[in-house]
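To start, an entry.
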Amino acid sequence: MVYEYSKINRIESPNIYMYTLYNGKDFLNEFFEYRKECQEKILENLFSNQNSSEKIELTKVGSCVINFANKIKILEENNKISNSLIIQEFDKFSLEETNSFLETLGNEEIITKSALEKLILMMLNVDNKEKFYFVLSKLLKKFEVTKKICDSYAKNFVKNESDYRTIKNYILLSFLIMDYYNFSRNFKFLNATLKINDTICSVIDKIETREELIISYLLLKLEKQAISSLIKTKKVEL
């Protein structure tokens, strides 16, 4: 069995996922094997052109994500990554700033990358993430309709004619959705991050920046943790 959902560029040729068949344990094993290959490819691309003593500098968003990863110890298995990182200070927002941003997002044109980065900085620094449900659901709906994420949206999240091929937008949205699933255990969000990750994995060789590679690697580890936990809970034997 071949994992077909990422075998071609799914940004240009999106999956529809209509009437998708479940092929049992064989499908689950193929899924895990394919995702493992993707993680190995990410590591290969990450370190192929890097001197062993060279440090990877992160943006504020990347630093926030890595701090989160360290907090839940998902970097433990790969010291080569964690030892190569330069962690910077990242923006922290007050409750008032967060509430204001969530309430006004969509009142004017949205620059997707900036909005997603700000949401990450906000959401990874609060314990109760319930207030993010409405905004994340809106963004998720935009993806579910076309399986694409535009570089910008008009007022009220209306689709415009902006480009949809910026891979980082898919990486950032999937990370946000995955984190919200871990908070809420709402399967709508797990289902969505699986679809977005299919898209990301289909263009794995096109991910160029080290930060994006690192976040993608962590994202797939989080995904594996979530699915493995669900399999254990449901007592599925592979």
Remarks:
- Residues 24-47 form the longest helix (24 residues).
- Residues 4-51+93-233 form one domain.
- Strands lie at 56-57, 85-86, 110-111, 152-154, 158-159.
